[in-house]
Here is the input.
Amino acid sequence: MTELPLLTDAQLTLENRVAELTFTRDDVRNALTGTALVEDIIATLGWCNRNANVSVLILTGAGSAFSAGGNVKQMRDREGIFAGRVIEIQDQYRRGIQQLPLAMAQSEIPLIAAVNGPAIGAGMDLACMCDLRLGSTRSLFGETFVNLGLVPGDGGAWFLPRIVGLQRAAELIFSGRLVKADEAKDLGILLEITTDADLLPRARQLATEIAAKPPQALRLCKRLLQSGQRLGLADFLDQSAAFQAMAHDCEDHLEAVNAFLEKRPPQFRGK
Here is the structure.
């Protein structure tokens, strides 16, 4: 399956098992509401899961921002997801933007956020839904919902404590303050900081290194990381044993062992 999905507000490329999704709505700073970005991301994630030729997905923004999150003008005008009565708004969240964290959590491949600028509100939460986050010196984060009299309605209060711990997540959510790149790295939100020019090359380098690993084992590792967030230890160990048995049965496992013993580069086939 090599045909790329049709997207509206994003561009997708695939090279050497690395897919790269770029948000192209710089006119609204890549806002997730009032655009088709949520649908585009979900469609891309589903395509990656089904496509055995994809091992890693990079998400990044074109222009000045990674993502500004919700469209504040739509909030003021009560348009789109923010329109209607209480029951209608909660349904629009459930069937709209909340489908994004569910799809991100169901991703079967590693996700890398290349945070090229501000990631605010739902934009910060989107970055936190990824496995790895690289930033540039222009990266800026803010769990700013409370500043607008709102809560993290997209699941941010679930993801953030798992990255920075409950106390720091509480401080960031309660204060709604902005976090620059250096502090974001200190808090564990960012893995690395680069210059603007080096951000995408570094993200591609990291993605390529990961994509060079045995594809099936890589996907099994990703699934274990997800399961570890919700299973008790005994059930998790049972799943780990089953996945390990599956990995032992793969041709790529034997190729990796033989290449190690023969001191040569492995040639993985995804089998």
Observations:
- The radius of gyration is 19 Å.
